Amino acid sequence: MRGPRPLQPQRRGTEVDQLVRAQISERTLRTDRWWLSPLLTVVGLGLISIYAAIRTFMNDFYWVSEYHYLTPMYSPCLSAECVPAASHFGQPLPELPGFLTPPVFIIPFLLGFRITCYYYRKAYYRAAWMSPPACAVAEPHKTYTGETRAPLIAQNLHRYFFYAASILLLINIYDAIAAFSGEKGFGIGLGNVVLLVNVGLLAAYTLSCHSCRHITGGKLKHFSKHPVRYWTWQKISKLNAKHMQLAWASLIFVCLTDLYIALVASGVIGDLRFVN
After folding, report:
1. Are the beta carbons of 107 and 113 closer than 8 angstroms?
2. What span, in angstroms and rounded, lies between the C-alpha atoms of 244 and 119?
């Protein structure tokens, strides 16, 4: 079977002009359901955003005192209005006025890390801004300035949000370990498993970040002179290949972790205990 004909240059006398592409008036000639992927993306991100907003301003059911489960959405809980036992690092901040809740201190950093993430940029650029909505589909915008002007120039802050997210990840790991010691001493329940899986996914997503990969080996000119950093860069590069899957898995599981702790804290369900 013959393949498509290559574009032929137009000749004017002895001059060879640039290749001329066919002029297509339609937005796309694709016949598949190209719109399904951006639609699912915008619906998924929208539902998660709604859930996160509700839980943020609910300001309740984030701590299970019996088993010391603390939801990652409220960690660290640094405000004076937090449950004292849930404030693993003290309460250096005062009570918040009005409808503000403790997560407002940490959400800007977590949200900033996710929003400026290279994968999430692609996801919401296509799904929300249709820039472009899919491959071989023209975008509706007449001009394109990229990430050179406000507000998108702030995407360059991604590395700094990575540093902040790494600190919060260490705090979440501490919370997961501290949860093994409840009111009755050492114990293991389903909530402990959920918290461990959550920090595992968060760690994989954070380490697979493009900024993390660049920090470990991006500026090296001779890998042979830096074997440890080269080995680390190789491992992170393998994680980086799964960055999209890890981005979704970690985001969804954070919500599931919060939901489980909220259900246990509110008494809707009981924690399945394996030890103590």
Report:
1. no
2. 6
3-state helix, strand, coil in the chain (%, to 5): 55, 10, 40
Helix, strand, or coil here: 274? strand
Closest CA to 76 of 62, 96, 97: 62
Q: How far apart are CA 189 and CA 67, in angstroms?
A: 8
To which residue do tokens 């690092």 refer? Answer: 89
- pLDDT tens string 32-63: 999 999 999 999 999 999 999 999 999 999 99
209: left (phi over 0), alpha (psi -120 to 50) or beta: beta
The residue to which tokens 């066919």 are assigned: 22
- Tell the residue number behind the tokens 């592409």, with chain if given: 21
Determine the length of the chain.
276
Tokens read off for 66: 């019996």
The tens digit of pLDDT for each residue in 56-83 reads 999 999 999 999 999 999 999 999 999 9
SS3 208: coil
Q: With 0-12 CB in 10 A as exposed, 13-18 as middle and 19+ as buried, what is 124? A: middle
CA distance 175 to 106: 15
Element (H, E) at 261: helix 243-265
How far apart, in whole angstroms, are the C-alpha atoms of residue 100 and residue 54?
Answer: 12
For 256, other C-beta atoms within 10 Å of its C-beta total 12
Pick from 32, 48, 40: which is nearest to 254 by CA? 48
Q: How far is CA 113 from CA 110, 169, 211, in A?
A: 5, 12, 11
The amino acid that residue 264 corresponds to is: V
